[in-house]
Amino acid sequence: MSDKTNDEKLRILQERLAQIKGKQDTASAKRKAQEEVIEVEPVKNKISQKEKSSILFKWLIYIVIIIWIVYGAFYSYNNIDFNALKSDKTDTTKIDEINEVKKPLKYNLDLTGNNIAIVNSFEDESSAKAMVNNLSVKGFKCDYFFLPNKSNSTEEVYKIFIGPYESLEEVNQWKENVNGEVEILNL
Length: 187
What we know:
CATH class of the largest domain: Alpha Beta
CATH superfamily of the largest domain: Sporulation related repeat
Helix content: 55-70%
Strand order of the largest sheet: 2-3-1-4
Number of strands: 4
Number of domains: 2
Structural class: alpha+beta
CATH architecture of the largest domain: 2-Layer Sandwich
Oligomer: single chain
Radius of gyration: 53 Å
Number of helices: 5
């Protein structure tokens, strides 16, 4: 082998190992420094870009929602008939009241006589028949009719009348024997 002693060989070997280790430490320190610089800068930029896009996206959603609400309100205001949303009962009663005021009730009854007295009205025919039977038993000349069939009214009721009688005095005499309000019609 060589003329050098073991101590010298050991010393040279240690120096070489120290040099190699120093080079490796320096190279790894440079790599770490570069990685830290490279990693730190892009991470900061990515976070801020993500935050910016997130904030922008949220604002965009808010604006779209506000525009949608405003458009819906505008569309509703222009296209919905709010008067039609009211209850049908109140509207029909108001219309019926207006119709009654506008046009007088005209009857087209085919009876022999000049006067009748309407004594009551019912919504169902069986009640009207029952009252006609009761009045007939008491001696009244009476009958009933369905109002829309015998007049210009659209009210669906059955009217019970006594008569017909030739004179108004005769109607007044018979109406005193009937309880309740009586409407006298001249035919």
